[in-house]
Amino acid sequence: MYAWLADRNVDAIGFTFRTIASLSTDVEAAFDETNLAQYEMLNVKYLLLPLNHKPPVPARLLATSGGNRLWEVQTTGYFQVVDRAGSVSANRTNIEQATRDFRNSNLALRGIYPSVAFAGARPLPPTFAGTNPPPGPAGTVVTQNNTLQNGIFNATVEARRRAVVLLKATYDPRWTVTVDGVRAKPEMMAPSLVGVEVSPGRHVVRFKYASYSHYPVLLAIGALTLLGLALYPRRTRARALLERRSRRRPRTHRDEAPGLTSSGGAQQS
What we know:
The protein is an alpha+beta fold. The protein has a domain at 78-209. It has six helices and 13 strands. The protein has helices at residues 2-7, 25-29, 36-42, 95-98, 100-103, 215-248; strands at 46-50, 60-65, 68-72, 79-90, 112-118, 139-147, 152-159, 163-170, 175-179, 182-184, 187-189, 193-198, 201-209. Strands 5-4-8-12-11 form a five-stranded mixed β-sheet, with no helix packed on it. It is extended.
């Protein structure tokens, strides 16, 4: 089922043993279907379950087909306006362990996310003073839309205080973001997501993922390499065959060494 959804470009929780491992691979593999906060932080909005499998969290039935039911879980969507708590330190090998306490808590439901000081990066300070953020949500998402195939996510948000607009997609250095048309710096948020800091007020935020531009060149190099590997053994075999035929060829007068006759005697002057 996971592969069927992926083959049809359905945005879904990833599965293990994929060709390319995402930074979120271990986080997704450790997804706890009984923890509503994890549905929020990863925007797991729909559940496709067998008839005899009840949703492990509150959900609304949307449709029934064959032996399956489609359920909807209430989330804020791809975007959420959140308070940034203190940072956790992590790298690619321990991101799941480093963010486990946060993922097992209910902080995502309260709109409180730590940032991630990734691979030795400088920790970011909280967006609020004191040990806890002010009461009430940091802000709301007014509108949001996306073009998944182009890696573009747009939102209009209302921030009640200094906050982070969180996009529930895996962090990558190739993300770019603008706030009210001005380029801003994306930051990594737990468990492995991307966000951008905003000031109080209404803002238009746009995230765009710039895909790797050199794939055609790499594919061409790969094709030439495969062609070379296919042709090289043939050329080697052909060269060896010619050498064997050359060794078996009868010697002629032109092959005689200087100073020797064909009968093997010394050449007469």
